[in-house]
Amino acid sequence: MHLCLSGPLTTEQVTVPIPGLSAALKGTTLVQFSDFHFDGLRLSPRLLGQAITRSNHLEPDLVVLTGDFVTEDPAPIYPLATKLKQLRSRHGTYAVLGNHDDVTLEGRQMIMDALRRAGITVLWNDIAYPLGPDLPLVGLADLWSGPLRARDLLAQIPADCPRILLAHNPDTAAAVMGDRVDLQLSGHTHGGQILLPGIGPLPLLARRLRYYLPRWLRQHLPYLNDHCDRITRHWEWASGLHTVGDNCLYVNRGLGTYFPGRWRCPPELTVITLTPAPQRRLHPAEQKREAVNLTLAE
Ligand SMILES: [Fe+2]
What pLDDT does 283 receive? Predict the structure, then answer.
């Protein structure tokens, strides 16, 4: 039974300029999926099958999955991984986990093992090179899973080398603003699920309204309770493409749906096309790090 209203699957097409992208990678296409919440309630097998078929039809260079494969119980990862094994691309499928995939240590390991058995590379504070040495893919543990390792990982990449970051929670963008991230791909917010014309995601409005209501009342109201405020600090980044400092963030609305459902915020498959842009100036911190690296290399 699927309690939540979802709406039809939409394909979002976005072209992202990547400073210093090598000519060989011009036109590289990535398909992103996020927030499956495959638990029998929040994502129908039909919608999932449709998303996989559509992705395969697009013949992308790479498929990336940005977490929340399950909701609480990790067991549905087995049927989900069987389905995700059908994803096709030139350079494989890469994944990071979300907060719902890290409820217990055992559950997290179950999810990682199931995905890896399905041929999916799971990055947990790791760097991979599916597109070659000129465009590393950095995959983080979820922001709520412990100390953020982003700075250490990003510092391992030469400052003039563009990089893509997979991080479930878009709030990560605020934490890595001082580092070079040419494109961060995230999910987590489900786009806010309800989009109000001219206003944006309902949680953004609710954040302003909630202080006018007594706590005992708002705790019983979806979007007005404290939990909604804790999901993300940056509801203004609930979906789509954003510039955060010198970095670029894309937030996918996800496939799964929570109560009370979606309105004007349909589940999403994203097709990202990379295009070259002029090399960017180094951050002061990067300049300092490069100077130290050069000194050490001499
Ligand atoms: Fe989620």
Answer: 61
- Which residues partner with 36 through β-bridges? none
| Tokens 């499928």 sit on residue | 93
How close is the Cα of 71 to the center of ligand 1, in Å? 8
- The DSSP-derived string for 143-188 is GGGSS--HHHHHHTS-TTS--EEE-SSTTHHHHTTTS--SEEEE-S
Q: Tell me how crowded residue 285 is: count the other CB atoms within 10 A of its CB.
A: 14
Verify cis geometry, omega within 30 degrees of 0, for the bond prior to 260.
yes
Task: Show the domains of the chain with their CATH numbers.
Answer: 10-198+238-297 (3.60.21.10)
Nearest alpha-carbon partner for 171 in 242, 274, 96: 242
Whether this model's pTM surpasses 0.85: yes
Q: How far is the CA of 84 from the centre of ligand 1 (A)?
A: 17
Residue 58 Cα to ligand 1 middle (Å)? 25
Query: In which residue are the tokens 């953004």 written?
Result: 204
Residue 129 Cα to ligand 1 midpoint, Å, equals 26
44 Cα: distance to centroid of ligand 1 (angstroms): 15
CA of residue 66 to ligand 1 center, whole Å = 10
Measured from the Cβ of residue 189, the count of other Cβ atoms closer than 10 Å reads 26
User: Which of 177, 152, 158 is closest to 246 using CA atoms?
Assistant: 177
User: Rounded to the nearest whole angstrom, what is the distance from the C-alpha of residue 68 to the centroid of ligand 1?
Assistant: 5
Q: Which helix (H) or strand (E) holds 251?
A: strand 247-251
Give the Å distance between the CA of 281 and the centre of ligand 1: 35
Does residue 8 have a cis bond before it (omega within 30 degrees)?
no
**Do 60 and 29 contact (CB within 8 A), yes or no?**
yes
Reduced to 3 states (helix: H, G, I; strand: E, B; else coil), residue 268 is: strand
- Say which DSSP state 142 is in: P
Q: What is the pLDDT of residues 108-142, one digit of tens each?
A: 999 999 999 999 999 999 999 999 999 999 999 99
If you measure from the C-alpha of residue 274 to the centroid of ligand 1, how many angstroms do you get, rounded to a whole number? 26
